[in-house]
Request: fold
Amino acid sequence: MTRMSKGEGQIRLAFFDTKPYDQENFDRYKNAYGVDIKYFPVKLSGDTASLARGYNAVCAFVNDEIDAGTAFSLVQEGVELIALRCSGYNNVDLKAVWGRIHVVRVPAYSPHAVAEHAVALLLSLNRKIHKAYIRTREGNFSLSGLVGFDLYNKTAGIIGTGQIGRITAEIFRGFGMHVLASDPFSDETWATAKGIQYVSMDALFRKSDVISLHCPLTPETRYLVNERTLSSMKKNAMIINTGRGALIDTKALIHALKTNSLGGAALDVYEEEDKYFFEDHSSMVIKDDVLARLLTFPNVLITGHQAFFTQEALTAIATTTLENIRSYFLNGSLINEICYRCTQKTCARKETGRCF
Reply:
């Protein structure tokens, strides 16, 4: 591939699935990184990839569709790089994209933002803050139906102890909770220092009063929360998901809620969210029967994938994405690259310094 060198002009970036806050934050930093951006409101897919003709790179988000067809079209249009402005990449078919076009991401922006939102969801759900807010706005100051429980001395289960999971666990410890953790790559040094115990997944589901999901979505973790694991949970337990929607089998979750075998659920993500999240559907009928059913439960709290949404996180997303792009085109450096072979544990990067 022919890369730009200094003095050749600005890097041209086609930016998909643009929202006003995206443009505001990227416009603030684009000149410093030498990137000229064309913003498109539509999602990136095989049908829209032709819009990137004449651009050096594209910028995509969590619900853009990056499969073999999209990658092929982008390459045909001369695009050399896909820059994800997010950490998750389950929307990218890495096997299909591999060898055609490089993909980079933002591995971490503000883990505190997501961890704090997870805890805020729990507090709101448990103490019925969202219901109390609506009541008092209408002049209703009754406390009936608003009883919650103390977090102190309860047990929290953290599934996934990356940066976000560890911060969430430490916040729960600050409440005086017992914290259990499960992760195939345990950090015993951290756990010992923080008074946290690693246990098996089955033990975590059985013993926890609150479970918070912070693991990536992979074939192994898809529907991690399912009929079997839900049936093993305490009857009044609550589950929090700020990770990826498909970590939970939503139909199994609905069954658990209908049968009163679960205390409640707070969700910032949903497995079919790409059809609804990040857009205003307030004047329309929600045709997704599963999502519509979830919204009817009094013990379910849903936010629209906003856990990351702080100014600090938006700044980190913009600057990291732009640096990923600049480094590739000016230096040939693929920082924060997503490598298919790395995910398969067959990468030769250590020997060659390159993935392909």
